[in-house]
Amino acid sequence: MKKEKKEELRILIEKEITKTREKIVEFKEMSKPVAPENAIGRVSRMDAINNKAVAEAALRNAENKLKQLIYMEQTVDDADFGKCAKCKADIPLKRIVLMPQSRFCVNCAR
């Protein structure tokens, strides 16, 4: 992969890291405990608890994505960047742009 393309990908990864960190802050806010003293009704409380569980799952996914993005940012200058971690085939550039945190080609990611 050419140096210019790697620099473009580094910028893309940095932007994605920033967006993911912002999402993590939002998900942490959304996943705070539902206070029992709020008089919102039983059904509304159940909805709030369900929404909290969804936000917690999204938070875990965002934190995992952030770890992967940071790893990819650190390895962008490596000679094997852009190669599948499993089969060592080139990962299509469109996949890297779409999912910069992915270390696997489409076939190995299944």
Helix content: 55-70%
Q: What oligomeric state is this?
A: single chain
H and E order = HHHH
**How many DSSP H or I helices?**
4
| SS content category | mainly alpha
Largest sheet: none
Radius of gyration: 19 Å
* Overall strand count: 0
Ends: how far apart? Answer: 24 Å
Low-pLDDT residue spans: none
- Count of separate structural domains: 1
Strand content: under 5%
> What is the typical, i.e. mean, pLDDT?
90
Cα shape: elongated
Short description:
The chain is mainly α and 110 residues long.
What does this structure look like?
This protein is an all-alpha fold and 110 residues long. The chain has one domain (3-79). It contains four helices and no strands. The mean pLDDT is 90.
Keywords:
110 residues, mainly alpha, 65% helix, elongated
Task: Map the helices and strands.
Elements lengths: L2 H28 L11 H34 L17 H6 L7 H4 L1
Helix pairs in contact: 1-2
